[in-house]
Design goal:
135 residues; mainly beta; 5-stranded mixed β-sheet; 3-stranded mixed β-sheet; 8 strands; 13% helix
Amino acid sequence: MTRILATLATVLLLALAGCGGDDEPSGGGGSTSGSGSSGGGGGQQLALAAPADGSLKFDKGELDAKAGTVTINFDNPSTAPHAVEIEGGGVDEQSDTVTEAKTSVTADLQAGEYTFFCPVGDHREQGMEGTLTVK
């Protein structure tokens, strides 16, 4: 009987030690800054950028996504101010206007075609426009 109790005590101690008695917070498990796919219900992340030389164009003229929550992550490395707006099907969502920075715009989208464009000045008329196809 003493041998069984000693064995159980040893197993219990080993189990407790294996649970990681480290009270320090871990370095990678805390907050995330929205990189990768979005949490909480899925959603799709799309990448879009403006050229560093300030040209009035996007790096892509067409984007594709699945229906649901869609986020366009926009990178504007130039000193020219730009933003991204999604429009169509009753949706009208716009990002912040940024220079030499990144921003994003998120919308709940149903299947269909939407337009994304830069709403700053006449940038849209100058060619900063594209089609977002949602399936």
